[in-house]
Amino acid sequence: MKRVFSRFLANFFRVFWHFRAIFLALLLITIIGAVGISLAENLRFGDALYFSFVTGLTIGYGDIVAKSTLGRCVALFIGFNGILFTGLVIAAAVEAVRKTYHP
């Protein structure tokens, strides 16, 4: 079992490496969204970054909420970006499973 998991991780990071530019772009968009939220909602950057990742990962704790129209638009953009990021991670995992069991 340990050997299969090792192969899966190796395959996952190999697939992840092929899409690194896309992953980095999505990460950068999340950070840019944090800057937008920070400016629109008058939040400290750390809080805005936290909000961006919680929103992007579709967790949505609700402890920080966008109240302005611009802030809500940025939050929607961050949420859509997070869905793309999650889909890409899942696609990489599926491809890694495929390569692990069907080399």
Brief write-up:
By secondary structure, the chain is mainly alpha-helical. Helices cover 82% and strands 0% of the residues.
CATH architecture: Orthogonal Bundle
The helix/strand series, from N terminus to C terminus, equals HHHH
Question: Termini, distance in Å?
Answer: 17 Å
User: What is the percentage of strand-forming residues?
Assistant: under 5%
For the record, the count of structural domains works out to 1
CATH topology: Helix Hairpins
The radius of gyration computed from the alpha-carbon positions, rounded to a whole number of angstroms, is: 17 Å
Mean of all residue-level pLDDT scores = 94
Low-confidence stretches: none
- So how many helices? 4
CATH class: Mainly Alpha
* Overall outline: elongated
Proportion in helices: over 70%
Which class of secondary structure composition applies to the elements? mainly alpha
**What does the largest sheet look like?**
none
User: Based on DSSP secondary structure assignment, what is the total number of beta strands?
Assistant: 0
Explain what this protein looks like in three dimensions.
With 103 residues, the chain is mainly alpha-helical. Helix content is 82%, strand content 0%. The protein has helices at 2-18, 20-41, 45-56, 69-101. The protein is elongated, with a radius of gyration of 17 Å.
Key features of this structure:
103 residues, elongated, 4 helices, single chain
Please write out the topology.
Blueprint lengths: L1 H17 L1 H22 L3 H12 L12 H33 L2
Helix pairs in contact: 1-4, 2-3, 2-4, 3-4
